[in-house]
Amino acid sequence: LLDDVFTKYAEKSSFSNMGTTLTYRELQIASQKFASYLQNDLGLKKGDRVALMMPNILQYPICLFGILQAGMIAVNVNPLYTARELEHQLNDSNAKAIVIFANSANILEKVIDKTSVEHVVVTEIGDLLNFPKSMIVNFVLKYVKKMVPSYNLPKALSIKDILSNADYPNFKKVDLNHEDIAFLQYTGGTTGVSKGAILTHGNIVANLLQARAWIKGFIRDGEEVIITPLPLYHIFSLTANCLAFSSIGATNVLITNPRDMPNFIKELSKWNFTAITGVNTLFNGLLNTP
Description:
The protein is an alpha/beta fold.
């Protein structure tokens, strides 16, 4: 599926965030660089679990598609988790590696010694934005808004360094079938501890085919622009926005902090968008913002 999308829509825009847009070709190269790094530098194998703990930023689809292409299993983690919740999910999933945004790295520091995590990749929100915005965003978040608590993860790797140095041609294609696991997708934990639902590649492809059957009368391949304010680590946004709309070559506009209504609306005004997903509280918030 991803190979077809990368080939068919190579020059189309795939994901956009804070003024930086990747084409599907650029997404393919970056995700296969990450896959190559997992395989060749970290020595991870097909079936190993890799956790993703970040909001809607360009790093998410790059790392997610890299994990899936390497035949590994993506474990989505809520960036707002407490140390106790994070420890439970990392141990329950037996995650070998985690990609985490710097704002939550102090939470990981508290529990990492009690988990099976061997490799940590840290990213700051602005890392993949165009210069100079990348520096400005990271500076403001860290030193002005003080949103990045200090942390100590001595062996942590930088996503910027990985994507700069990883050998894209060394990515090895992996044999995958419908029975292979794609995700351990955790429930909200409303009836006890969060539980990992096993989603196979067959599950995901079936879901995409169903979704496309429902929306095919309303969409045009390669021309849709979808606003994505809901977090991609959640199953709704993951399947509806990230996967279903990517499968038709759409542009996903990632909203990193939809609770910041003025900036969210400012971003909406820049796009002639054709679709938006949300939940009642989000639409209510928009309606109550001048």
